[in-house]
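quick one if you have a minute, typing this from the bus. theres a chain ive been looking at and ive put its sequence and its fold in token form underneath. please have a look and point out which stretches look like helix strand or loop to you. anything you notice is useful, everything is just below.

***
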Amino acid sequence: MVVHREKQFCCDTCGTFFATITYLKNHQRVHTGERPYVCGICGKGFGRASRLASHQRVHSGEKPYTCSVCGRAFNQAANLRRHHRTHTGVKPFKCEICNKCFTCNETLKVHLSAHSGIRIKRPRRKTVNGDIAKVPCEYCGRLFNYKSSLYVHRRTHTGERPYSCMDCGKTFAQKGSLKLHKVVHSGEKAFSCDLCGKRFGLASTLKTHMRTHTGEKPFVCDKCGKCFSQQGHLKAHHRMHAKIKPCTCDVCGKSYADRRNLKLHKCVPS
């Protein structure tokens, strides 16, 4: 039997009704700005004890919410829901000016500032001691001085890529990465290898290429000690340990941890 509880507790400020006095008190902190639950590690305050408990997972590293598609773990259910959109392609946040859609509300806010040309600066939050409070990433716990820096960093977790190349459609998380990519279309190759003469459009590509001559492998697996010359190869190797195989053959259905092994896989349709 479902019990319908009458909402009899009213907020004096906005007139909203609540079923219990506890819900009303929690709500009133929205108006008063009161944040009585304070993190003992970073000083960030919260209006509810449950919000503090959720936040503390940023520091503890606990990630109880796991993606059923790729196995990635998250410390908050909301972060898992946001991540799921990278698999489904759902973009529920729409710009009313140009109709462009986004997976995250924060990315939509950044996009809207591009239309107005105005960057809104909010006063930086302070801790209970009066110090400037750094903003933690809710995925990995890394601290940032500004929310704008956090928004850019967060895309490494969510997969959001708001900057698109007009020539090929490839998307990027940062505007600077898009600018570097445009060199590919211009055909300019200003960086030359001193050992073999091969030329590259980007200094970073030349740096990676140089490791084929030096044998340098700076990316080390923390589980088995195997070394790699490129970070992407290490990430693919990590998937092997996690037994995650996102790259699937369209012909036979066999799965691999990275695209390189899928390309090496020879499958002839019957």
